[in-house]
Amino acid sequence: MPKIKLCVNVDHIATLRQARGGLEPDPLKGAAVCEKIGAAGITVHLREDRRHIQDRDVEALKKIVKGKFNLEMALSDEIIEIALRLAPDQITLVPERREEITTEGGLDVAANLDRIKKVVGIFKGRGTLISLFIEPDPVAVERSRDAGADYIEIHTGSYCNVFGGPGEGAEIKRIYRSAERAVEIGIGVNAGHGLNAGNLPPVLKAAGLEELNIGHSIISRSVFIGLDGAVRELLDVINGS
Ligand code: PXP
Questions:
Q1: Which one is the CATH code of 5-238: 3.40.50.2300, 2.130.10.10, 3.20.20.70, 3.30.70.3340?
Q2: Consecutive H or E run containing 190
Q3: What is the pLDDT of residues 38-58, one digit of tens each?
Q4: Is 153 close to ligand 1, i.e. is its CB under 6 Å away?
């Protein structure tokens, strides 16, 4: 079975930096540490409100990231223009609302199918992979394939919220069913949101899972054991060691 890859979301380092408006901690330095320890790539979300990651961050990261550089973005003309100039290895389309604390819920692919198809067409022509961040729902998986995406990223937030409680079984089944449908119809499977060393093992059993995007738990854990230790800890879980 191919190894599942870890892409670290370094937005949370930028959140800390923006709290003081200075230069520390630097998400670029964080990205370099993550890759040195074995992360397969780096993920950032350039939000329309520029709450954490800034334009200068994405430009600098594009130059230093050695593995996959994955840009999460809303269906916004302004951000699409930046992404076209930047040419990341992958874009992940996410819903975005100004008042949210973090990305809530998946993209409504059916409701935005024409727009998403158009955006997918533009980026595909330039060799950029396209992933759609969706709820664990087999119908949303099918619509993502209809839109021409290369990957779905299964939103694991609902599962993480009920992990260890009575709803866990039902939520992990939704993830498994969606991943199975993706494999059946030939679209790649990524997953992320809310994952940590404790709730990750069941998710690793999802069919066809290629890549995980994890941020908050890694940066939180790094306060106590360092960023290198936090990345290593998750890689050990992923690799079953
Ligand atoms: N994937 C997507 C599409 C996201 O929006 C986020 C949150 O920025 C993540 C993964 C990572 O989630 P977390 O920070 O909870 O690990």
A1: 3.20.20.70
A2: strand 188-192
A3: 999 999 999 999 999 999 999
A4: yes
Q: Please state, as a whole number, how many other Cβ atoms lie within 10 Å of the Cβ of residue 3.
A: 10
Q: What would the pLDDT profile of 147-191 be if each residue is shown by its tens digit? A: 999 999 999 999 999 999 999 999 999 999 999 999 999 999 999
Find out whether 39 and 10 touch, Cβ atoms under 8 Å: no
Q: Where are the beta strands (DSSP E) in the chain?
A: 5-9, 41-45, 68-73, 90-93, 129-134, 151-155, 188-192, 209-214
Q: Please state whether beta strands 41-45 and 209-214 pair in parallel, antiparallel, or not at all (unpaired).
A: unpaired
| Per-residue pLDDT reduced to its tens digit, 53-72 | 999 999 999 999 999 999 99
Token output for 82: 């930046």
**What is the SS3 assignment for 39?**
coil
195: CA distance to ligand 1 center in Å? Answer: 9
User: Does pTM top 0.85 for this prediction?
Assistant: yes
| Euclidean distance between CA atoms 34 and 11, whole angstroms | 13
Contact of 55 with 27, CB cutoff 8 Å: no
Mean pLDDT, range 89-105, rounded to an integer: 80
Rounded distance between C-alpha atoms, residue 234 and residue 241, angstroms: 10
Q: Is the distance from the beta carbon of residue 211 to the nearest atom of ligand 1 less than 6 Å?
A: no
Tokens of 239: 């690799």
Ligand 1 in contact with 103 (CB < 6 A)?
A: yes
